[in-house]
């Protein structure tokens, strides 16, 4: 099976680290050049049964002008064309304005959206439960998967979840 997955999230939440983990020792194309196109291939996961293309999706931000508005519309429509969206957040205890803005845009997207809470190595159980509860209230996420990209915790679970949607 093959499919496309859009990854989005604020800078520094750990998207690149996570992709490195997902790809692991599998055959992969990795790209970390500055953004030039609207849908840069970030990496390709390949195993016996799957080829999954991960797309780095920029540009869901507050539009400052007409061009910005166009970019946001383009990014949002891209999200409707893929099999799955991964929205990556970090260990922040509350939903900040950057994440809030993305979530509001995601409410218009029809594709299933999985919330990936990264950096759980910085959180205790109670803190994680509170964060999960906060995001659940938004009613936009099909599933929530906590991981530590840095330590590799729960990344295999995430891969299994992604495969369900391909
Ligand atoms: P990106 O901008 O979303 O691609 O984020 P990066 O992958 O470049 O990561 C940003 C910073 O967060 C780096 O210093 C990473 O080492 C760190 N980081 C990524 N994942 C984790 C994690 O699971 N736990 C912790 N503690 N730090 C992480
Ligand atoms: Mg990156």
Automatic annotation (TrEMBL):
Region spans: G5: 147-149
GO BP field: ribosomal small subunit assembly
Annotated spans, G2: 35-39
GO molecular function: GTP binding; GTPase activity; ribosomal small subunit binding; small ribosomal subunit rRNA binding
Ranges for region G1: 9-16
All residue ranges annotated as the Era-type G domain in the record: 1-166
Keywords from the UniProt entry: Cell membrane, Cytoplasm, GTP-binding, Membrane, Nucleotide-binding, Ribosome biogenesis, RNA-binding, rRNA-binding
Residue span of region G4: 118-121
Membrane topology: Peripheral membrane protein
Residues engaged in binding GTP: 9-16, 56-60, 118-121
GO cellular component, one term: cytosol
Subcellular location(s) of the protein: Cytoplasm; Cell membrane
Family recorded in the similarity comment: Belongs to the TRAFAC class TrmE-Era-EngA-EngB-Septin-like GTPase superfamily. Era GTPase family.
Function (record text): An essential GTPase that binds both GDP and GTP, with rapid nucleotide exchange. Plays a role in 16S rRNA processing and 30S ribosomal subunit biogenesis and possibly also in cell cycle regulation and energy metabolism.
Self-association and partners: Monomer.
Record's protein name: GTPase Era
Organism annotation: Alkalithermobacter paradoxus
